[in-house]
Amino acid sequence: MTRLLSCPLCDHDEIEYYHQDRRRDYWQCQRCALVFVAPHQQLEPEREKAVYDCHRNSPQDMDYRRFLSRLFIPLKARVAPGAQGLDFGCGPGPTLSVMFEEAGHPMALYDIYYAPDRDVLGQSYDFITASEVIEHLASPGQVLRELSEQLRPGGWLGLMTKRVVSREAFANWHYILDPTHISFFSETSFRWVSAQLDLQVFFPSADVVLMQKQ
To answer: 93: burial class by Cβ within 10 Å (0-12, 13-18, 19+)?
Structure first.
């Protein structure tokens, strides 16, 4: 089976079995340490969107704002006043973009299902956010490379996703219960990404990663 797989982050073909539950198998790349679900066990787009349609996030939800503050606060402290941003994977109830707009930052939105205007992906930005997005990506390597290319020199990429800590913790991790979660990063994975894309990486908290373009 491993001969038929390559890592969706770094395209390496040295893959090892990592974990199995009742629904699917998980594999780990031996170069960048990404843990991922094989394509044949991922949801079709219609079923994936049906899960997202159940989300009820909105700017009026103060608990959701507090959750997003884990990314908003450290990123806002690093960007210049008036810096322009893109909220990539904004979902059906864009909220992080509203928080940045309230702080004086013009924001563009992109989401494959809810804001599919690809024109915004052809522009450059001072910062890009992707909150609870990259764990859903079937081709995270390609997407992260494209996002880094959209950053202006000195720009910031702000990501929020929970990180793989150990095989033992993974086996009992609530994060893998979501059928739309298919790519699981560790610090090792992010350090590999930052080295490949010439980004400086910071870990301000357990589920937030900031990367600055050199």
So the answer is: middle
Amino acid identity, position 9: L
**What would the DSSP string read from start to end of 19-57?**
EE-SS-EEEEETTT--EE--GGGSPPHHHHHHHHTT---
Look up tokens 């997003």; give the residue.
68
Give 119's DSSP letter: G
Beta bridge partners of 210: 158, 202
Integer Cα distance of 209 and 214 in angstroms:
16
Q: Find the DSSP H helices in the chain.
A: 45-52, 62-76, 96-102, 140-150, 167-171, 187-197
Residue whose entry in the numeric block shows the structure tokens 């589920």: 207
Q: Does residue 64 sit in helix, strand or coil? A: helix
pLDDT digit string, tens, across residues 158-176: 999 999 999 999 999 999 9
Whether this model's pTM surpasses 0.90:
yes
Distance CA 29, CA 2 (A): 10
Whether the CB-CB separation of 151 and 124 falls below 8 Å is answered with yes
CA distance 63 to 58: 10
More confident: 137 or 2: 137
What is the DSSP pairing of strand 183-184 with strand 107-110? unpaired
